[in-house]
Specification:
It is a single chain. The protein has 9 helices and 7 strands; from the N terminus they run H-E-H-E-H-E-H-E-H-E-H-E-H-H-H-E. It is of the alpha/beta class. The chain has a single domain, classed as LmbE-like (Rossmann fold, 3-Layer(aba) Sandwich), CATH 3.40.50.10320. It has a 5-stranded parallel beta sheet with strand order 3-2-1-4-5, sandwiched between helices. The chain has a two-stranded antiparallel sheet with strand order 6-7. Strand 2, helix 3 and strand 3 form a beta-alpha-beta unit. The longest helix is centred in the middle third of the chain and has 19 residues.
């Protein structure tokens, strides 16, 4: 019997990082100048989104003395469907975020947790929008998940951020998994690259390693949320943002 492919692109086999590395398009993206950013709000739908998508940028900004505010919309309690105690998982993921911020050198970042339901942001998008409207006011830039990332929570967070701040730039996470180099579904003409010095890349790798709950098997036949192949997309010497 032939098994049908997963309907969810995130659950399907992803694009190997070697294919992204071989694509000259990434290196040809216009460079973003982040040196003028004295303050930034980083929006995360789940703990680890901000580190995967923009951890290098956060580290660079922290080293430059920029004011950083992390808005954690959920605490990630639904990442393990069979978890006996979702509240305990949420506490673990919150602690992982704190360790990751230290690894990035961004431990002084202000962290605001909204405590909204993991996997339920589309149903409370109006609330997310209202809160982000308050929390992004007065900042130079807002970095938020990409609103076309093919993850409902990421997309709701991204739409909300775009609605309240014209200074929003979007970072992709799951796009690197389901898209392919030169993919016409991706607005490459709106993409910018931020090059990461080697020391920053090392700090980002250390920060990713702090999310042990996402790196280990979840039981019940489920592997880790972040497989080695997935992590490879986020240990490059650059990050990508969409205007």
């Amino acid at each position: 019997m032939v098994t049908a492919p997963p309907r969810d692109p995130i659950q399907a086999p992803g694009t190997r990082e070697e294919l992204w590395q071989a694509w000259p398009g990434l290196g040809q993206l216009p460079a973003a100048d982040i040196s003028s950013w004295s303050s930034a709000v980083i929006v995360a739908a789940h703990p680890d989104d901000e580190v995967l998508g923009a951890g290098g940028i956060m580290s660079v900004l922290a080293a430059a003395g920029a004011r950083l505010r992390l808005v954690a919309i959920t605490d990630g309690e639904a990442s393990h469907p069979d978890a006996a105690d979702p509240a305990a998982l949420a506490r673990r993921r919150v602690a992982e975020t704190a360790r990751a911020l230290r690894a990035l050198g961004a431990q002084q970042a202000e962290v605001i947790r909204l405590g909204l339901p993991d996997t339920g942001l589309a149903a409370c998008e109006d609330e997310v929008t209202a809160r982000l409207g308050e929390l992004t006011a007065g900042f130079d830039v807002c970095l938020a998940p990409w609103s076309r990332d093919v993850h409902a929570d990421h997309e709701a967070a991204g739409r909300a951020a775009r609605q309240v701040s014209e200074r929003t730039l979007s970072y992709p996470v799951w796009m690197w998994h389901w898209a392919v180099p030169g993919d016409p579904r991706v607005p490459w003409h709106q993409a910018l690259r931020v090059s990461l010095p080697a020391a920053v890349g090392a700090r980002k790798r250390a920060a990713i390693a702090c999310f042990t709950s996402q790196l280990e098997s979840r039981g019940g036949g489920l592997g880790p949320v972040l497989s080695p192949g997935t992590i490879a997309h986020f240990t490059r010497d650059l990050e990508v943002l969409f205007r």
